[in-house]
Structure formats: C-alpha cells, structure tokens
Amino acid sequence: MRAVLVHFIGFVLLLGSTLPQDIVAHAEAKANEAIPQLAIVRPKKRDPNVTRKAIKAVKRRTSAKQIIKFPSPSVGLLPVVNQEDIRIHHRKMADDVLRSLPVECTDHLENFYVRYDNPERRGLAGKRSIILDGTVPDDEFVALLIHEFGHITDLGCMAGSKEIAPSGYKDGSEIIYANDPSVSFYSISWKDAKTQTANSSPEDFVSGYAGWDAFEDFAETYVYYALQNESFRTRARKNPVLAAKYRWMSRNAFANTTKIAEGNFVWEGRIPWDTTKLSYKWLEADELALK
User: Fold this and answer.
1) d(Cα 234, Cα 244) in Å, to the nearest integer?
2) Cβ partners under 8 Å of residue 130, min gap 6
3) Which of 28, 61, 216, 290 has the most crowded Cβ, counting Cβ within 10 A?
C-alpha cells in the first residue's frame, strides 16, 4: 500500500452507498463484537509524502552501513532483491514472486528493502521502490509484495506523457496525464483520485480498503486478481463494475500471464477488508507446468 497500511483484519458487510470512512467504523464495530480482545487500529490517511520520506530514511540507513549482512546465496537472484541486508529466504521469495508477475513492469522496480525492526507500516511503495515488513508471515509477505508491485505497475510502469492534457487524477501533487493506461481503470469507480462516482457502492470494490482511493483500488484489485482469481470471477459474474475491473486487469496488467496461485477465499457475500490477509496456495514451478 502506498502511504498507509491497514492492520485491521476482518470483513465489511454490504451497506449500500456507505462511504469508505463509514465502512471502516462499521467494520471495526463488528470486529469488536466478535473478538473484543483484539485492539483495532484505525487507518491513517494516505499521503504520498510518507512513502518518499520512508524510502529516503531506508536509503540513509543503508548508506551508513547500519545493516545486518546476510551472505548472498550462490543461486542467480534478481539483483534488485539480492541485497545483503535482506534475509536469504525473503530474497528467494521476492525473486520467485517478481519472476511470476508480468515481465513488462519488473524492470521498473529499482529499489527493494525489507525491514526487521517492526516498522509501523507493513509495506510502502513509490514509483520505483518497495519497502516491506520482514516480520510478517511468509504468505502475507508475498501478498504484500504483490500489492506493492501493483503500485509500481500503476504509478511507475504505466505512465502518460506530459505533452497530453492532465487527466484530472493526481497522486498527491503529481499529475496523472490523460493517456496514462491506469486512467481507464480509475474511471470505472472514481471521479478523481479520492472521490467515488455517484453510483458507487461497497460491493463494487474487491475489498474495503480498495474503496479508500483510486490507487488502493488498483493495488487491491491487482493482488486480488493474482491470488484470489476464482473468487474475483465469481463476484464479477453478478457485478458489472467488478466485471469491468476484472477485464481491465486481464487485458492490461496480466495479459499472457500464467496463473500463480489458488485462492482459498470463498465468496459468501462478505467483502474482505484487506486482500493481503486472505489465504491462498502459491503454485510452485512444477504445478504451473501442469496447468
């Protein structure tokens, strides 16, 4: 996620035209009823400046050699993940994930960091950089990486040109131009980066967090397509907005891409709050060969 990561786990009930802020409050109330011992943390407002500051801070730590070094394995890992301050099993997981995602955008990831100091946010991404929390479970680490790579795809790989008029969508102060491929995704549910279209409803988003802004909608939809494809298809059959988002991902983000996971989330009418918390089975190379 870009400037904020939500630590709340649970589901959002369908509430008609409820706004994203109301979704959060309602979901928290439901979660407190079901599991009163859980401390619910409200999400902070996303701010692209937070991402930039976090990346600069990590770079300063690395340049000052304030890192624990883990010897590089002999296998050929992607250079972007083969960093001495990243544990070897995280390097291998990240390498496997990135090699499984659309190759057209992987070169746009220039900086990859994993923190082991219990960072406040589980993940952050800019146009060309990703920071992940290395203390989360492995399955969550993979899902977070795919979510963050969704931001790389959206804001770094798919770009418009300054010669074209602005689209009306902005990431903070940064203008997104009208010929940016992502604009056709945003326009499915968003008037601008933070304002949903008048007829939008919670069930038009793959998760509660996807309704936060156009960029989280893209990243959550991206990881949902990659890890929970069957659930996505099931929902899309009865929801034309989700069908449009599924088609967009299929044609623009995942064209000619092999299935990489079997999702375990079964759609029963409850919207998940955070797609990176949903269970799935990662398909190994030998399983992919049989598909």
Assistant:
1) 13
2) 109, 111, 112, 113, 123, 124, 145, 148, 149, 152
3) 216
Environment class of 189 (CB within 10 Å of its CB; exposed 0-12, middle 13-18, buried 19+): buried
DSSP three-state, residue 125: strand
SS3 261: strand
Query: pTM of this prediction?
Result: 0.78
